[in-house]
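User: Hello, can you help with two protein structures?

Assistant: Certainly.
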Amino acid sequence: MAKKDPKMRKLSAQQRKAVEERAKPDCQTNAEAVRAAYPKSLKWKNTTVGNFASDLFKKPHIMYALEKEMDKLRSKGRNKTALSAQRVIKEFQYIALAAITDVVQYEKRKGRGGVEIYVMTMTDYDKLTEDTKRAIKKIKIRSKPVKSEESGEETWHEIQEVEFEMYSKQQALDSLAKYFDLYVEKLEVHHTGTVGVVHTTIQEMRTLFDAMTPEERAGHLDKLTKDMEVIDE
């Protein structure tokens, strides 16, 4: 009959707890893990706990279980980092793809003397998409009394002035481009003993990106996000 591998022995509930505690980043010593896993150890002397912990974590099945537990935590950490990166990229996309026409409209109206004027009004906040809301940095609303004359009578009424600010599209585009290494400040090409230098400025990259339609920009950034997910994996 084949001899069972010592490291494959089953852990008791307290041993499992000690392993889980010891694998945590904030656990500094084996003794700390023992005190957390074995309630009776709270009454032991420090030397007793230390000796018990030393013996416990020398056992093959405990060492193997601890190694597996730490691998699991490291894997979770990598996944969390990848998720955080994707979330940041997504937030930058909301800003980079937002357009001011998503927030305001220009309406043609008749002013005094029948002169046509254009009035800018803000879209009802409740009607804005969640993506657009994420691109808005701040909104201020102020009430202001206005005097008008109708049928020869002077009247006063109140209007609301709306001031809003969008997050910087340029900064969002720069951050995305830098993350994906889209900016090439200087590229040297060696060929037959000569050096050719190609310059692509940041401004040229911005101009190229701004020239795209919203659909092209969205498709381009989605592709970059997918590329990033492949790299993170």
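That covers the first. Now for the second protein you mentioned:
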Amino acid sequence: MKKYTPRVKPEDFRAWNDKMITKYDPDAFHHHPNFFVRFTERKRVKIIFKMMNINHDDYVFEIGCGAGNVIEKAPHGKPFGADISLSVLFKAKQRICKKVHLFQADAQNLPCKDQAFMQVICSEVLEHLLDPSAALKEMARILKPQGTVVTSVPNESLINRVKSLLIHLGVFGWLFRRKGNYAEMSERMDHEWHLHDLRLEGWFTLFDDFFRVTQVRRIPFFWLPLRYAVRLEKSDGKGRSDEATIQD
């Protein structure tokens, strides 16, 4: 398992994470004044559930659920959500507490029984963590043998190139200006809230420690992969992540 020396000390992580949530409220991106931002977020949620085969009796768990914008869209199953931030969990409880069981938890040390969940979601979370490998190990521990994990990660290099172009053209501030409570858009999130900016191959290397990648989807379009959604299954020692099917 890889070890990391991120710029945030473990003892400072929760306070730093709460500061970032206040500055870049992830819930607000789902209601952003920019249509393309809203479209991308909705496409991400839609693709996540298309990659899963959720039965009515399945326990479905989202790690890093934030305000619940993803887990609330689960079409079936018994939904659970956890986040390390009490402030964002409070927002989730105000919205979806009647349909989703919510609790506070650290993705790297989950208070869950082994093999408790058939379906696990971890979307736009790994890049924020001190040690993504520790979170992946926990996902493998709580996942049933025939279960599925769907995670999504940003394509940081492409996102930064697009932002640089928009800044050069002088339209970045206009396109992504903050209005009211809508989230601020950073010029480089890897200088702010993202502690890791791995390419897809780098994420595959981490996934291979515990899982086999069975599918990859590009978000929002095949030709504009700002994010990657990845379906994982427990590794049987026979498959490799570079065999995964990449779809539009």
